[in-house]
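Why predict the complex rather than its parts? Because the way molecules touch one another can change local conformation, and only a joint prediction can capture that. The input here totals 630 residues.
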Amino acid sequence: MSGRDRGGLLIAVATIASLALVFAYLAAGGASYEPAKVQDPCKPRPWRNPEGLEQIAEQFSLSALDGAACKLGVSRETLARALATPAARERFIQRYGLDDAELARAVRAGLLRAVDDAERAGALSPLLAAPLRVTLRNIPLDQAIELIQNARSLLDNLQNFLGPAGGLIEQFLP
Amino acid sequence: MSAAPRPRRTALAVAVGLILADSSIVVLALPQIYRDLDTSVAGVTWVLVSFNLVMALAAVPAAHLARRMGPGRAAAIGLAVFAGAGIACGLSEHLSTLVAARCVQALGGALAVTAVLELLPATVGSERRAVAVWATAGATGAALGPAVGGLLTELVSWQSIFLLQAPVAIAAGIPVLAVARHEASTAIVSAELRRTGRPHLLANLALAMVSAAIAAALFLLVLLLIEGWRLSPIGAAIVVSVMPLAALLGARIGPALGSERARAAAGSILIAGGLGGLALLPKATVALTLPPQVLVGVGLALVLSALTETALMGRAPQAIHGGWTISARHAGVAIGLIVLTPVFTHDIAQQRHDAIDAGTAVVLDARVNPLLKLELAQKIADRLEGERGKVPTIGPAFEPLPSDPGDRADVIGLREELQDQLDRAATHAFSPSFGLGALLGLLALVPIGLSRRVDL
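Output of the joint prediction:
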């Protein structure tokens, strides 16, 4: 084999080896190996078969986060981290140029969406949802945030929120 | 031309390998230097960039100086300066003094490495063999550098990389002193220096491009392994040692495989293919970095030796043309690092943000006891806050694991899912930079192809 032929063969082998590697990695999913994209909070998220108070409370919190995040134009995940501690909340308010009133409006809107979602999923009776909406419309910011963080307390303390209607809770929760 | 004693040949090859390894030897130590000297990723990159930039700027003037003062003397002085500056690097406690010492080290290195090229033909018996020894020693040094640096960082300290260079440089300088003693006292006259031919522009341009691509491969892979996938320096050193092993294989079989141009083209294609593979890693698994490393290693050996031989063969004086190749190689590395650093630091910051979002989503949607989830979320948030500007390590946030078997299994599942998101983010953060490196490798084919028609 002449030197020219050997050179041509060498280049051909190098090209085949390189293309084989690139296509093998592409076929194995190399182009899509990246972190999962977070979902748009304004799009409805299905409730996964809530069984019991714990699960309903959790789904309620997630729906409320989605609703508030949608109102603020941020991701559900960003808002969840922002509401984790008072310091994180302060940083979030400064970063997005908000004030407490705007945040409170968004969090209340989130809670109302959670009630809607819970009702739609059959996790909350319409009879219970209606007075709950009235209560949530005027709830103070800190209490609203606490409810998002731990919706179980909302369901546990519905009696306090609803007054005379509270006795119906056990009857209306699935 | 009769060959000189073997110790001198070995000493000269070691000197070239040692100095040219220095452009990459600290790569695996950078994360440790970054932490010890409390600097930024962009700042610590200057430990590499400064050395390569000064080498690029000083190589040709140093070659002229070596011919004026005599190559034996120049090599001895260059090695002494290199050794002294290496000690200063090892004793540095601030980034600024380390970078300054690296610049001085590069000045000494430039003088020594170009002078050695002038000494080699008389030492090894022929100009062709001298060029081959010089090119192979340089390629071997550059390829072995990161692995040796990683081992020293893990077993001793990053400072030891520089401190140990000093005795090796001095040992390599002793046989050179014998040459210096017998050198004619009269310096080469200026008229002779003016007769220097033009450098081989296309070969040197291609050399700069592939050097930038190789720098991308070494530097980024090490950062991915240590900072992204959390390997120890010694673990990363073992992984990246595949590249020099493949380079040794390439250096062994290369010369028999075709003309310099064919080897240069094949080498560039292999480097581009290897970097393309690293840009498309389908999983955060060390084994998947091995095939790309083999391609880059073999490609590196083929292309560096072929282009260096093309740039040097038939051109005199050797030291000056060797200076041009050194200048091209180190300029390529420096430019590659300067261009890539902002790209990957931006991508790491972006991916960190995406990883945190993806991780939060995993925690929020996890089927874990909600109260346990709240506790975990707080610990994970603390970990995220604690890691400044890096892809976070979240494992400790899950310690201790819950005692309840059901909760324990849920938490382990959540930890694995979260870790997967972080691995995806870290790996993906490096993809554009590896892709850019692959593009540089492919672009080198332009000057290599043109050199078929134009011999500049």
